[in-house]
Amino acid sequence: MEYILKDIKIGVNNKIYLKDPESTPLGKRIVQDGIRLISESGFENFTFRKLGKRIKSNESSIYRYFENKHKFLVYLTSWYWGWKEYQLVFATNSIENTENKLLTAIEILTKPVERDSTFGHIDEVALNQIIINESSKSFLTKEVDAENKDGYFLIYKRLVGRLSEMIKAVDPGYKFPKSLASMVIEGSLHQYFLIDHFTSITDCNEKVLPPDYFKNLVQNVLKIENNGR
To answer: Which among 36, 114, 135, 158 has most CB atoms closer than 10 A?
Structure first.
């Protein structure tokens, strides 16, 4: 099984990059150290020049992979949601009970992130912090409609769609499955941000984690009995 998992590749829309960073050792270093640099200094302070110095390569070599740092952030967010989708499918594929399947999915999508040895060059914990702090900058732009048309956010929308379908499987009559699904996914990021920065306006903390809140919320909305989950 370990060898099978090592062959898994998270597919990202090829319009986002100029050259697939997964295709070369340099590309993987760009992603690996780019994640670390953004995590350390923030996206606003991140530049390809700084990244080039970090990986001891010319700035121009990074531009062979990504047109600009916005595209790099879109790539990272797309990879992250693709990784989450892979986890979701892997964890829920064999669950037949629709309620258990939904609650497992919510757990997967909202739990604290741990390192995944399947993807050695990606620090998923650092990437998760980037998603919490910076991911909105990937779509809160004037170009969002054009980029959406080009499929930049397809993986994220597909993930929301998967969760929405699980909600409908539990309650076909519920009127707002997509809204609830997207709120769970985006809301979990917001709760982690509040835990780090605005503790006075959230009930989540080190003991009460976002999965507890969102599973409770969905159970109440869809009238799911809490059978010890």
So the answer is: 135
> How far is the C-alpha of 31 from the C-alpha of 41, rounded, in Å?
15
pLDDT per position as a tens digit, 84-124: 999 999 999 999 999 999 999 999 999 999 988 888 889 99
Report the CATH superfamily, name and number, of domain 2-221: Tetracycline Repressor, domain 2 (1.10.357.10)
Residue 204 in contact with residue 191, Cβ under 8 Å?
A: yes
Domain boundaries, the chain: 2-221
pTM above 0.85, yes or no: yes
Residues in the chain: 229
DSSP of 139-186, one letter per residue? TSSTTHHHHHHTTTTHHHHHHHHHHHHHHHHH-TT-S-HHHHHHHHHH
SS3 content of the chain, % helix, strand, coil (to 5): 65, 0, 35
Are the C-beta atoms of 92 and 105 separated by less than 8 Å? yes
The Cα 139–Cα 136 span in angstroms is: 6
Lowest mean pLDDT among 8-12, 88-92, 143-147: 8-12
Closest C-alpha to 160, from 210, 106, 198, 114: 106
In the chain, the amino acid numbered 94 is: S
